[in-house]
Design a protein that fits this description.
Strand order of the largest sheet: 4-5-1-11
Strand content: 15-25%
Helix content: 25-40%
Distance between the termini: 38 Å
Order of helices and strands: EHHEEEEEHHHEEEEE
Number of domains: 2
Radius of gyration: 18 Å
């Protein structure tokens, strides 16, 4: 699997109307700046059992505040978030009038943050860890096209195909804001390595797939991710967020 090296940027470059910027955060290198977290985020951090999990949570959420503040032209502390009915975070429209959508996902030491001015966005990230129940999960939750793509592979490529499929489906559902509440087999994404990332079809709406952009990303070796946006995206920027000092 290729190992892209995403350039580090101290501040985001211009974000145009048809762009998506995807940031990778090293949650072990980034100290977290706990002081920028909102009271609900600090409360959530304290429910985590291990010091490592608390540190990683602070790092990814502090990075989110820093990035959103830079895009919005305000301090990280001034970023105000709300959650939708199924828990998806968004900018508080009572505080922020700028049309910026974002989403974040984490897996182990890494987090991915997607930011766009285009439309609702979702992101997912998974480490390519062994998955003993891969066949059972695919049989229970994936569409016939997706199961066929997985069945056509073996070994390490089969695992990669499974995770490509999973991250693209999860990113799409997160963009919708419903998480895993929508049946996974009711829509299909591309999964084989030779096909572009795409939403192939959604049951009951033959035109839905053409409205979406699905973007495949590999922020580090042995990690695979996906971004889903409810419009056509012309440019994708991939960047590494700079680390900061320890948690305050």
């Amino acid at each position: 699997m290729p190992t892209p090296i995403w350039p580090a940027h101290a501040a985001p470059p211009p974000l145009h109307a048809d762009d998506v910027h995807v940031w990778v955060v090293d949650r072990d290198a980034d100290g977290g700046e706990g002081g920028v977290l909102s009271p609900p985020e600090r409360a959530r951090r304290e429910t985590l059992r291990s010091a490592r999990d608390r540190s990683r949570y602070a790092a990814s959420h502090a990075a989110l505040h820093r990035l959103l503040g830079a895009y919005l032209g305000c301090t990280p502390e001034a970023v105000r978030l709300v959650t939708g009915p199924w828990g998806k975070p968004a900018l508080d429209p009572r505080t922020h009038s700028s049309p910026v959508w974002f989403n974040m996902a984490a897996s182990g030491p890494l987090a991915l943050i997607a930011v766009t001015r285009a439309a609702e966005v979702g992101v997912d990230l998974e480490e390519l860890a062994p998955f003993p129940d891969l066949s059972e999960v695919a049989a229970d939750h994936f569409s016939p096209e997706e199961r066929a793509a997985i069945a056509a592979t073996t070994g390490a490529e089969r695992l990669a195909t499974f995770y490509r499929c999973w991250t693209r489906k999860e990113a799409y559902l997160k963009a919708l804001g419903v998480g895993l509440r929508q049946p996974l087999h009711r829509f299909a994404v591309s999964a084989d390595a030779g096909s572009p990332a795409s939403l192939i079809h959604v049951d009951g709406d033959p035109e839905e797939g053409a409205r979406w952009s699905i973007i495949h990303v590999e922020p580090r070796a042995a990690f695979v991710g996906a971004v889903a946006c409810r419009t056509r995206i012309e440019r994708v920027g991939t960047f590494a967020a700079p680390a900061t000092a320890g948690v305050r």
